[in-house]
Amino acid sequence: MARVLRSRVSRAERVYGGYAPSATFRLRLANGKRAFFKASYPAPKGSGVRWFMDHEAHNYRTLERFIHPWAPKFYGSFGRVGWHVLLLEDLGPRSVPPWTYVKARNAARSYARFHRTTWGKRLPRSLSRTDYVEYARFWRTLGKTGELARTASLAGRRAAEAEEWLAVALPVLIAHERELERARPPFALLHFDTRSDNVRLQGDRLRIFDWPFATAGPAEFDVVAFCQAVAAEGGPSGERVLAWYEEILRLRPGMIDASLAGIAGYFADRGWRPPIVGLPRVRRWQRDQLKECLKWSARRFDLPEPRWLDAVTG
């Protein structure tokens, strides 16, 4: 590690906050500088944790000219006895939540500037252009398999009310999610996992880390995922955050609709499933996002208010 950082470590402070159990430390170096240590390690037998350190290191190396200055500087990586270590610029302590209006506005505008730099531009051929299409089928699948009742069951005693609402909403949500399959350029570089545990706010700039899932696709998908996550953590509404973003980069309304329906479908499919071994907080966070996505969908698609969501808990 000292060889990569060109200085020995004088102090390491353990930090927590993400949903995956990676080993993360803020490092103070003997030369007075700082760095961030992130590592995967052999998971216990039966763990549902999946590591993507190889993908992340590759993306930091190959996408540097596209993700600078939003991403941290990448100092290097190495492996030892089953561990895979990434060494990065230390972006400081957690800055959100809480999501104040000022923080959400600054983050949204900076996120728009990030997407604007690659909107319609030539991107590396190694990037997938179809990752977002997976989200075009969740509502259809839930309807065909009968598992939509599992989504409704999250409402407990109000499950019948939930089933009635979902029956009304399903054709609308299916119609919108299908449009993801018809998405056409211009595309942009997508982070594909932008939420509070993967970002820091430094003044009016959003700094974004954890890049294993970087892909190419409609910027609307990245934006909607980010907006609903801000709202789900008690910040301004998805619509408000989206409006701040569009002060910098105008988006396509149809792709916003498709992305919202598709992301809502993903959480409708995941929220009722059993806990993931080794990732105990993920399902609750998915249910929180399901609630926000469906409330936003009801407002945007002129659906009845989904009052049954009040009964959905962690």
Question: Which consecutive residue ranges, at least 5 long each, have pLDDT under 50?
Answer: none
Q: Write the element-wise H/E pattern from the N-terminal end onward.
A: HEEEHHEEHHHHEEEEHHHH
Q: What is the level 1 CATH name of the largest domain? A: Alpha Beta
| Approximate helicity band | 40-55%
| Apparent shape | globular
Notes on the protein architecture:
The protein has 314 residues and is α+β, with helices and mostly antiparallel strands. It has helices at 2-5, 53-62, 64-67, 101-118, 138-145, 148-153, 159-178, 219-232, 238-246, 253-270, 282-300; strands at 9-14, 23-29, 34-40, 74-80, 83-88, 188-190, 199-202, 205-208, 215-217. The chain folds into 2 domains: 2-88, Phosphorylase Kinase, domain 1, CATH 3.30.200.20; 101-311, Aminoglycoside 3'-phosphotransferase, Chain: A, domain 2. The chain contains 11 helices and 9 strands. Strands 1-2-3-5-4 form a 5-stranded antiparallel beta sheet. It starts with a helix and ends in a 14-residue tail after the last helix. The model has no long low-confidence stretch (mean pLDDT 97).
Describe the structure concisely.
By secondary structure, this protein is an alpha+beta fold.
List the helices and strands and how they pair.
Blueprint: H1 2-5, E1 9-14, E2 23-29, E3 34-40, H2 53-62, H3 64-67, E4 74-80, E5 83-88, H4 101-118, H5 138-145, H6 148-153, H7 159-178, E6 188-190, E7 199-202, E8 205-208, E9 215-217, H8 219-232, H9 238-246, H10 253-270, H11 282-300
Antiparallel strand pairs: 1-2, 2-3, 3-5, 4-5, 6-9, 7-8
